[in-house]
TrEMBL record:
<dbReference type="GO" id="GO:0005737">
    <property type="term" value="C:cytoplasm"/>
</dbReference>
<dbReference type="InterPro" id="IPR011059">
    <property type="entry name" value="Metal-dep_hydrolase_composite"/>
</dbReference>
<feature type="binding site">
    <location>
        <position position="267"/>
    </location>
    <ligand>
        <name>substrate</name>
    </ligand>
</feature>
<feature type="binding site">
    <location>
        <position position="168"/>
    </location>
    <ligand>
        <name>Zn(2+) 2</name>
    </ligand>
</feature>
<feature type="binding site">
    <location>
        <position position="52"/>
    </location>
    <ligand>
        <name>Zn(2+) 1</name>
    </ligand>
</feature>
<feature type="binding site">
    <location>
        <position position="298"/>
    </location>
    <ligand>
        <name>substrate</name>
    </ligand>
</feature>
<dbReference type="GO" id="GO:0004038">
    <property type="term" value="F:allantoinase activity"/>
</dbReference>
<dbReference type="GO" id="GO:0044205">
    <property type="term" value="P:'de novo' UMP biosynthetic process"/>
</dbReference>
<comment type="similarity">
    <text>Belongs to the metallo-dependent hydrolases superfamily. DHOase family. Class I DHOase subfamily.</text>
</comment>
<dbReference type="InterPro" id="IPR050138">
    <property type="entry name" value="DHOase/Allantoinase_Hydrolase"/>
</dbReference>
<keyword id="KW-0862">Zinc</keyword>
<feature type="binding site">
    <location>
        <begin position="52"/>
        <end position="54"/>
    </location>
    <ligand>
        <name>substrate</name>
    </ligand>
</feature>
<comment type="pathway">
    <text>Pyrimidine metabolism; UMP biosynthesis via de novo pathway; (S)-dihydroorotate from bicarbonate: step 3/3.</text>
</comment>
<dbReference type="InterPro" id="IPR002195">
    <property type="entry name" value="Dihydroorotase_CS"/>
</dbReference>
<dbReference type="InterPro" id="IPR032466">
    <property type="entry name" value="Metal_Hydrolase"/>
</dbReference>
<feature type="binding site">
    <location>
        <position position="294"/>
    </location>
    <ligand>
        <name>Zn(2+) 1</name>
    </ligand>
</feature>
<dbReference type="Pfam" id="PF12890">
    <property type="entry name" value="DHOase"/>
</dbReference>
Length: 416
């Protein structure tokens, strides 16, 4: 199945020298390793355009290599790494260091560099130097860019030099002190909440800038019905806006927080059932272009206290299965539509050579069983952290093999 060509057929796939050499029909090649995949789906390696690798500086949570091992186990072959590292990815030296070390990792690593130094919204970074070092996108993710002038300048110059702004939309004054969605559950628990308006105000600002200056912007981790509605309306007006949501936002709700378990705390937070259904509808009608995990690892010790734990959950190993379970099996999306939002759509938004099985493309392939059921066991995951909101859940869809650049980087232990 190749969404880049709407290709859905039974046949062989030949990989040679890190490239896709032939697609379809019966193929024979001397001295090739033959993988018998009857009943399985071969698709382009997934593209996750929102990942926190925590490297440099926070490698007790994750590092480039452990994060890419987790990616491989989830069928993800390309990741966009966010800049809230220590030090922040705000200069050419840090960008170059990450890219140099990532060459040996089990996925292709792309860099979203910081818009402001230290993500503090006090001084802009040198965007041309960041681009020269190899960054492909810009964000202060983990925080919004508080200084609107800096954000506008980044959107304008970024469009000129090939850096896509991927925006964390949040009003920090509205969100301050909140631990979860502001609503029925937060009131029941007596916990300060984060209102949907915090995200919505940020989304409105970013859309306004894109429309006023005629430049593109990508909205990260959409979680509210109102934000989805604003993006939908903006697209109808021709605004150059794209958007992503995460598997947890179309699968789970704020009701999970009744457990007082910090693994269900992330930012933006899990919202209401109305918001969850709005994410599904926005995926169905094309308002939301891509599915990305916002993979945010934290150690078990950091996540042990519900009130003081940092926000974030992991998702690289569960994203495909969550999509099949919550979107394909109930009939909201076809499998082809799901794969499109996890392969060619994010690749096109970022302008990277990924998300396709076309001849001569990189040999990035995921092989999966769309009907295999499995229970998410955090102890069996491949990254350093265990803070998955899907723990204990029965999901459908299991990755059997992942090939990145022609190299087999993951095989399901049951089949190895």
């Amino acid at each position: 199945m190749d969404p880049s060509r709407n290709l859905d057929e039974t046949g062989d796939l030949l990989l040679r020298d890190g490239k896709i050499a032939a697609v379809g029909g019966e193929i024979s090649a001397e001295d090739a390793r033959v993988v018998h995949a009857d009943g399985l789906i071969a698709a382009p390696g997934l593209v996750d355009m929102h990942v926190h690798l925590r490297d440099p500086g926070q490698t007790h949570k994750e590092d480039i290599f452990s994060g890419c091992r987790a990616a491989a186990a989830g069928g993800v072959t390309s990741v966009l790494a966010m800049p809230n590292t220590t030090p922040a990815t705000d200069c050419a030296e840090v960008v170059s260091d990450i890219l140099r070390r990532a060459r040996e990792a089990d996925a292709h690593v792309y860099i979203a560099a910081a818009i402001t130094k230290g993500l503090k919204s006090e001084e802009p970074t040198d965007l041309r130097a960041l681009r020269g070092a190899g960054a492909i996108a810009l964000s202060d993710d983990g925080r919004p860019v508080e200084n609107t002038r800096f954000l506008a300048d980044a959107m304008i110059l970024g469009d000129e030099i090939g850096l896509k702004v991927v925006a964390h939309c949040e009003d920090l004054f509205l969100a301050k002190g909140g631990l979860m969605n502001e609503g029925v559950v937060s009131h029941k628990l007596g916990i300060q909440g984060i209102p949907a308006a915090a995200e919505d105000c940020g989304t409105a600002r970013e859309i306004a800038l894109a429309e006023a200056y005629g430049v593109p912007v990508h909205i990260c981790h959409v979680s509210t019905a109102t934000s989805a509605g604003m993006i939908r309306d903006a697209k109808k007006r021709g605004v150059r806006v794209t958007a992503e949501t995460g598997p947890h936002y179309f699968s789970l709700t704020e009701a999970q927080l009744l457990r007082r378990d910090a693994d269900y705390r992330m930012n933006p937070p899990l919202r209401t059932e109305k918001d969850r259904l709005a994410m599904i509808e926005a995926l169905r009608d094309g308002t939301i272009d891509a599915i990305a995990t916002d993979h945010a690892p934290h150690s078990p010790e950091e996540k042990s206290n519900f009130h003081t734990a940092p926000n974030g959950s992991i998702g690289l190993e569960t994203s495909l299965a969550a999509g099949i379970t919550a979107l394909v099996k109930p009939g909201y999306l076809t499998l082809m539509e799901l794969l499109s939002k996890m392969t060619i759509a994010p690749a096109q938004i970022l302008g990277i050579p990924a998300g396709t099985l076309k001849t001569d493309a990189a040999a990035d392939v995921v092989l999966f069983d769309e009907n295999a059921e499995w229970t998410v066991d955090p102890a069996k995951l491949h990254g350093k952290s265990r803070n998955t909101p899907f723990k204990g859940m029965r999901l459908t869809g299991r990755v059997k093999m992942t090939v990145c650049g022609g190299r087999i980087v993951y095989e399901d232990a049951e089949n190895a």
